[in-house]
Amino acid sequence: MRALFISELERLWKRKLIWMMFAAIPLIVYATARYYAVHNLQVPLDSPEFVTSGNFPVMALIEQLIVVFNLVSLVLLTLSFTEEYRTGQLRMVLLRAFTVGQLFRAKAAAYLVTISLFFAAYLGVSVAVGFQMFDSSETTRLFHHVSPAGPGEVMGYTLKYYGISLLTVVGMGSAMLALAVICHTTTAAIGFGVGILLLSIGYPLVYLTFNTVLNLQLPAQLAFLSLTQIQYEGIAYLLADSSMGPGPYFPLFALAVVAGYVLLCAGGACLAFTRRDRWI
Amino acid sequence: MRQEMILEVGGVTKTAGRRTLVKELSFGVRPGEVCGFVGPNGAGKTTLIRMITGLIKPDSGQIRIDGVDVRQDRIAALSRVGAIVESPIFFPYMSGRGNLLNLARLHGNLHTSAQRKARVEEVLAIVDLSGRGSDKVKTYSLGMKQRLGIAQALLGSPKLIILDEPANGLDPMGIRDLRNLILKLRDEQGISFFISSHLLDELQRICSRFVIIKEGGMVWQGTSGEWVDIAGTRGLEEHFVELMTR
């Protein structure tokens, strides 16, 4: 199983596209920093949106999480599952003495390691660019926190923010994984993956608009059935001071949503990948 | 005493929807034997090869490789087999050597990096690709890909190699090289071969046994000599056409 995992990881990292995605991180972070440098002129100093070297890694992640990270996740899954399977390349691996379930787990593990490394690299570059381009501050305002936070608290907040973001990207990746396994071409997998991302972004807008306009009085929390909504607002709520969060049950609700995506979509993908005949 | 078979196919049937792709096929391949698997396009040859290699599951029947049932113990059964199913498709962004090193990781008998490198160089030399091993696979000709396909099949030191239409697209020299390679591996390493092909004359030169199928079912099986006797002056091709149009 370990050999299978290393083999998967090796093939993934032999692709130029993976290296290009990692090489793009400094550019993305720099562009984000330039945006915040201008944005800082429009927000008060005591706003959590005011960027310092301390909160820049989190702000840089917030800005790019929904699009960049979810798309990187989609590309990784499509390359590893759809392309290798549908072009017949995977046949060379499937003919070896392993079970198909082991292969699925090895591929999933290679994806998890690579997307985690992408987060780690993004964090490292953000810290460096943050110190280079923004002033430091004794204290930093965090979203939904009563009092300003010191450097230690900001560091802990940053690590938690990245950790939860990784979980949400993996949750979203589970839906994309199901598509990657089902779709017959990489174009279809990428297309449907982008479609599900747009659907996820659009759902809360539609839900909240109808809820308000039609006065349906449905719980606003249901907007967080969308993982991109959790990425957009939910992570900050999860890390909020207890007095400023959306309620005591929100963390449980958000966890259930992420777990639901992983169990249903990744579980379904695993069944589809392992149970059906492989006409390749 | 019954001789132990390296490959036993017993009453194997596969359907897809209402179509029966393979029906009640039974035959065996003995150790050190080169067995030709013949049938027209769409006869079910590749479907059976997919079942032998565990890519798809038979609806009924049993497939045993070196005495191990593929469905019951896929890992043990496949550890004895090397195969090319349809055309050999590699990871095009890697070199030939890189492909083999990546796949060599998946063989339990090659534990260390040194063992894997040595085995890869060995199989590259066997298929005469040492000089082009560092080139990207996407630059290889079809013949080179076929040879690399045999190299990857050899990685795990298999007892049985399954080749699906290995001569497709090869020029006469490529076909001759492939034939010599198969005979060399059979004679020097005692490897059994199960080869599907349309090239009857070519198969006649290397196969000691034939299995002929039509529309998924068995039409004839026997030794090469028996087929030549039955075909008589008509030749194998004429007899094969006769079998298919009967």
From TrEMBL, chain A:
The keyword Ribonucleoprotein does not apply. The chain crosses the membrane at residues 17-38, 58-82, 108-134, 161-182, 189-210, 249-274. It comes from the Bacteria. Keywords: Membrane, Transmembrane, Transmembrane helix. This is Uncharacterized protein. It comes from Paenibacillus albidus. The lineage of its organism: Bacteria, Bacillati, Bacillota, Bacilli, Bacillales.
